[in-house]
Give the backbone structure.
Amino acid sequence: MNILVVFTGGTIGSTTQEHTTAPDKKASYALLDHFKQTCSNDAVHFTVISPLQILSETLKPQHWTTLIDAIRSQNLSSFDGIIITHGTDTLALTAHALFHTMGNIDLPVLLVSSHLPPHHPQTNAHVNFAASIAFIKKRVANGIFVAYQNPGSDDVSIFRAETITQSPQLSSHFFGISAPAYRYENGTFKENVELLVPGMSQTTGLNPHFCDRLLYIRPYPGIDYRHFSLKHTRFVLHDLYHSGTCDTQNLLPFIERCRNEGVALYMAPISKQEDYYETTKALQDKGVRFLYDMPIEAAMTKLMLLYGNFDSQQEIDPFL
């Protein structure tokens, strides 16, 4: 079995010295060494590339292009699967970026992170890495996935990339807008037959170019939209409260400003349903563009990809 391993840094590729954690290639290779030592009977050959060596909080849109181009430059027909090591801070965003550009790949691709460096006795790095290898070995499914064992859990969750969300603040746990596609425990993958897969289309025919000229806004009580500049902005992505709402009355003048300055305004996340709060209905009546049934991470990466590939709204709209 031949696996392409793509090192990008992150906690899973770091060591801690003098109370400071930083990327270290030796830590990345420690994953391979640990697996070979503990699973010596597994005939696995690793081909390693390292297009990035960063902490994931420093990730920029061009890093996605570098990562995707590095993977595509390989002879993928010679591999049984791909493992990408990645930091936790922007893990979900990279997962969605890969889904939108490589979601139809005829291989299992797993992003693997850890909440502590590989040398730490309580790290989940090695169990996540081993679960990913088992997923590839058993050829459970093709596509983009995230393998992660939440601290305190006995199993490793295998999320479909298009469902995963960012880890909550002050937490080392990961969740999705639906249950994990699979759970791995005691050498067995249990499929979640009630998995809800959101209605999101892949945009795999597009180049991995991502626009960074966006304004991202999160609502909060008393938000004053006069503080936001639209200079150099191609589109605005406005987050919503959990029920698909925000302070509509406060937002209306900003909607007009976006329209007058030719800046597209999108809002997410929100579920497609029959009944809406009056605040949301008012936005719909104003013609605000809602991105239904996708997490904010999916909305952000998809819009960045579309605006990185197209110049006109007429070209972008068919993909939404």
